[in-house]
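Build the 3D complex.
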Amino acid sequence: MTALERVASARRTLGVAVGVRAVLSGGAAAAALLAVAGILDWLIGIPRAARALAIPSAILLALAALAYTLWRGRKVRALPVVALWLEERVPELRYALVSALDAPHSSPTLEREVAAVQWSPVINRALGHALVPPLLVLAASATLLFALPAGVRARISEPRAGDALLRAPILAAPMRNRLTPLTGEVVPPSYTGEHHIIMEEPSSIEALTGGHLVLRGQGSASGITATVAGVAAQPRDSADQWRVDIVVPAKPAALELRDRSYSRTLIIAPHADSLPVVTLSAPTRDTVVRTPKGALRLGADATDDYGLDAGWFEYIVSSGEGETFTFKSGVIHRVDAGNARATKLSGELDLDSLQLKPGDLVHVRAVARDRNNVTGPGIGVSETRTLRVPRASEYDSIAIEGAPPPDVDSSQLSQRMLIILTEKLEARRTKLARADVVKESQAIGSDEARLRQHVGEIVFARLGAQQGTEDAGSNNAGPAHMTPDQLLAAANAATQASAGATDFGGDETPVVAVNRPLLEAYNAMWDASRALEVGEPGTALPPMRIALAAIQRARNAERLYLRGKSPTVIVDINKVRLAGKRDDATSSSRLPRAVLDSSSERRAERFDAALNDLAVNSSAAIDSLLALRVDALEPAPALAAALAPAIDSLRAGHNATDALVRARRIAAGVTVARIESAWGGAW
Amino acid sequence: MSTFTFATAQYDSGDWDSAPLVPPNIIDTIARYTEIEVTPTGAIVSLASPDLLRYPLVYLTGHLPVRFSDAERKQLREFLDRGGMLFVDDHNHDVDGVFHKTATEEITRTIGEPKELPNNHPLYAAFFKFTDGPPTTSHELNGWGDNLVHKNLFAVMREGRISVLYSSKDYSSEWGYHPDTKRFQSVDNTKFAVNIVVYALTA
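Done.
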């Protein structure tokens, strides 16, 4: 082997050594960084965000060490440099290697001199110096890493939410507060398809009503208690941890955890699954259709926060006038939304099939239902569009003067009330003594008789009778055309005729024909009165219902309820100002504002007590304010909202004065000025 | 103190304008018995409009089925949350009518179920004294005896204060006449409206 060949061999060996050293240095730097991070996390705990940087930082450091080592050893690639390096460490060479490299032709003398020198011990020492230190650092760091608790290694290698519980406690179990660290896992209802959410050290947990909340801590469950809104929840052991499972309530609640003298309060702030939002796109506005033929195009968009189950259109057709309406409804174009968060509904409403008549109204709306099978389902509806079929007489109508209902309306209402009273009595009849049933029945019968008498008066008046009652008719001159006996006979005839024929035959007068429904009612009322008088409310009900139906048919009120701008009446304030008699008015004794109600007063007292505690025990005061906020979330949302920033400021150690002042004013019932308020000084 | 404006709620469904003479009649009554500064005409405000918040008291009536839109429900809830008072009167004076069923359903859905208001509630002494509770209407009485009268109003309470006042007594018919004809009445039947307004402004 020539001198050059030997130098080349040494260069290869040194080159490999540089490469191995670079790899070892990179590994050692990475392992050392991870070991240091692990030790620090074990001792003092490192935030998850910082731990998440450990692995990338270790890789970067390893690459940097690798690159630096390679850069430092870069000269090993040059043969003269290797020759000089050998000459420097092996003086016996006396520059023979350099001379051999410089000479264009090999000299036997030089070759002999070089061949006589062995430099392998120098190479071996150099390898040792280069490889042993990084190898030692790597071994020590790896040893440290494996010596750390497994949980700490997991926290460094795979930091994730909730891994606070993996950090091995330093204090012995009896000394430890098992409520810290604490993790909360929110498990949404399965229908939502949402992922679990894990929180560390939660103070307030927002979750969907009906979902589950799992709280976990280190150690055994023995001795730990949990209460949610005063109701106990049972913690249990799970491996080397304790856990408590809670169903998210519908209302805000405070979760109180206790471990011996330690306690911890959390707020559970539930939010409900929103109802689907449905927007009707067609028809776009209310409309009037003179000839209701063809089809009405329907369109709607429905969205939901978690997913829709189905959507459809509903219609209601109201027919009638005045206060007598009949309704029929239906569901059309139902579609399965397939858990989509948004869907479109479309279809047509066949107007021909509805057989609409003048005066009818068709109300259309779109409906969507979500997949909430826990607290729902939630059903959202769109705005309602109205399609009106006008009456021929409406075209010139502009307004109708308000007026009390006609007598027939009043009779109809009273008859309905009497039916309700009779139905109630019939329902209670088995529980009452017979004498009581008869007494109450007769009282209703008395009212029924008076009502019948009133109906008789209406008929008399229409038939041209003088003012008075049906009885007066027999004493005085009587009705111009009929006597009461004739009236009763006509009523009987009307009742009998109603079963079949549609009008009267024979010698019936047109006036009787017009009033036939009232005469039917009159006759049915007789039957009802008789049954009520003998204490048989059940027997009285059928004729009472017949009377009600007959009175409804007799209604002659013609009210039109036009949509649009109302007629404007301007009151002459100065003219009427204080013109009324105020003898029984009590305004002077009223105070501008009433004192706080008892619950508000209690909240104000609790707030004051918490403020007093602030100087002595801020932690307890914050807990008190937290508890007050929970209690105020529903009955006093303004106070609850004002307390939130105050609590946050106190916890963060910031100045909470402004927030507390604002909360105090609300607690005391003092009006709080809000710049964004839209109350425009209306009073 | 700013001027009080009596507002009538306009809603998308039903016939919100079925009692157009009630607002001027109540305005006349407010001026007649109190020193409250009141505008000579009422206002019509959409339930879905942010303008709703400009009025402390809003009157809602009708005969037909009531279905609030999402926007109306949201705005009404905001109105009530911020201290407004809604007075709902069933113009059907009908114990099982469609307005009653749908309106109470919508109120329940929006803010809560209306509960019977005791007849000794401060509302009945807010200005005039009504020792027997809400005054009866001629549509209830008709001479058929007290047991046929709706004895109570209903209300949704918020922190001890009436938030929604619901009436089945049909004051909309009882007060639905031109204020100029009031001088022919021996007893003014609109006095209870003063109590409602005064309560809304001061409670």
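Chain B has one domain: 7-202.
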